[in-house]
Amino acid sequence: MLSLEGAMIAQDGFTLKADFRVKAGRRVAVLGPSGAGKSTLLAAIGGYVTVTQGDIVWNGRSISNLQPNQRPVSNVFQDNNLFPHMTALQNVGLGVNPNLRLNAADKQRVLDALIAVGLSGMEDRLPAALSGGQQSRVALARLLVQQKQLVLLDEPFSALGPAMRIEMADLAQAVGARIGATVMMVSHDIKDVERFAEDVLWVEDGICHLPRALDDFLNDPPAGFTSYVGE
Amino acid sequence: MAHRVLAIGPWPGLIVAGLVTFFSLGTLVAVAFRADTIGGLDPFDVAAVRFTVVQAFGSAVLSVALAIPVARALARRSFWGRRALITLLGAPFILPVIVAILGLTAVFGRNGVVAYGLSLAGLEPISIYGFHGVLLAHVFFNLPLATRLLIHGWGSVPAEQFRLAASLDFSWRDVFWHIEWPMLRYLVPGLLVIIFLICTTSFAVALTFGGGPKATTVELAIYQAFKFDFDIGKAALLAGVQFAICGVAALASLWLAVPQAVMGGQDRRLQRFGSQRLTTKIIDCAWITFATLFLAVPLLVIFMQGVPYVLTLPVSVWSAALRSLVTALGSAGLTIVFAVSLALVALRWRWLEGLGMLSVAASPLVMGTGLFIMVFPFVDPARIALLITALVNAVMSLPFVLRSIGPAVRACEDRFGPLSDSLGMTGWARVRLVILPRIRAPLGFSAGLAAALSMGDLGVVTLFARPDGATLPLQIYRLMSAYRMEQAMGAALLLLFLSLALFYLFDRGGRGHAKS
Predict the structure, then answer these.
(1) How many angstroms away from the CA of B8 is the closest CA of chain A?
(2) Which CATH architecture has domain B1-34+311-516?
């Protein structure tokens, strides 16, 4: 269980209030107008922005003061998820050992992860030799080897076309299920959200609302959502 | 509160920052302790101070005055070889001073082409030694620098202004006053200060073309106090004076707009209207020809006169070349370690990178004097001459190198910092796996620059080296002083080749097999 307890998150003169809980293993979409603080929320949970008040708690243990890599968190960012000078194998291998010193068993784990995301035989390619969708697959394969219990996806597929985004949302769902992780995904596209999420976390005007089940949210959306979607 | 970069330990950077500050400023403290009082300056020294300032000022004015028409011509003309010429303008930066000196002597000296021409016209040849020679050499080095920076200036003028000028039917005078003059007024003062600063610390030029009561710079006076009188008190006092001159110029450069592109070439051609008249075309063509000949002929002469002697050079030259290679490679390595450490620690404390820039205002001769005073009680300075040369060269290269490595490291951290943090890549793993591969191109360029600068340096080594411990530039200077010009030419060609080869190989190594 992830809980934000009276958390105040300040970044560049902007403040976000968050007080909510997410049950373990849920798939949560983080929705809201741009500039509302969705990415700031994920950055705070990931450890890139510190909370000025309150606490972030994972399974009863405060993680507010831990470095990003010490948290039970793995990330896929909007961009720069892969090192362009490393092969797919190396990029995933970093999730096993950040020194990149991999023994035979480590290497096998990485290869298995690449196969699981549909990239068998592409382990020696550099990102430049992969399509946008394949690059996303490499980032997802790394989540598999990292085995962290909280997966944060910050508009990870925004550079892809609509069909590919749906495919990736499905794959992200499968990856989350495979490691049994809680997955939080920021998205702009309601289609992705409908496909992917169980719960929706609405962020607007510096406030994080309580997560609601997807159906419930869609049947009775907040006022801001209607104007956001433009219906 | 934003996340702070804590992934890489600060100690290497702090140690380097301390070391660099010690070299740039600490050596001055050692100097101050040993210095005579200000009354220790005799009329000869006062003349040296005056000469230093006057020649530096004259060189700066002349370089910029000549650079303005050349830069304008290059900015608005397109011709075959234009790109190559602009690249050639960058070459003097890594050209060993002693090589240029020999080339200029061969062209403008007593037995040179120009003297021959003058004698045909029944005129006396002008002497290349003294004020003329120093000015000539300084213009040779700084005209290209000024031209490149001014081409940049012309390139920064919005194209719309020239279009507007054409539609308003401006004359060339109107164009100058309304468009070019504001740009020049902004750039020229900073340019003058930079060149002034360079010319106050160009020891090798003063050593070869200067000398005597009328043409001795402060740095040359330091050298003489050291070498001939072994008067450390006097040398230290002069070192203090030199530091004051550099310091004033460096402070002036802080509040003037100093153009920043040292090596970055700007070769976008301006599309200009109204410059198609025949007279302006002829004038532009004349300026471009003048600049090309002025820069290329001395180097061509070195090449033609040096080639026959390269293979028959004495062993002393080859062993000097070997010493220089080792020094240059060591210096390049030190420069890279210093620059990367400083750039990394500057991610936390930005101002620390400024310490690496301190040596802009420092004189290598002052550093040398200070180090000599400090190590003299413990070791024979001659035994560590090459080590000290490599260190001083590295500190002197830092300002140029940091300008390319600093922004590259910052850009890398901006782009890949969050990912590296999220994966727990810290310390050496982060440097080895992320930062070094990502900054490979500026790293190669910087190593090449540092190696070439050190290879061609004729400065601090003159204070320390034993007769049998010369570097290649020093050996060439000795051959020159002994009037063995053929051998000097051959050795100069070798030095030129080695310097350019070092730069080329490192720079190429940084860019080769570039992974996107």
Answers:
(1) 13
(2) Orthogonal Bundle (1.10)
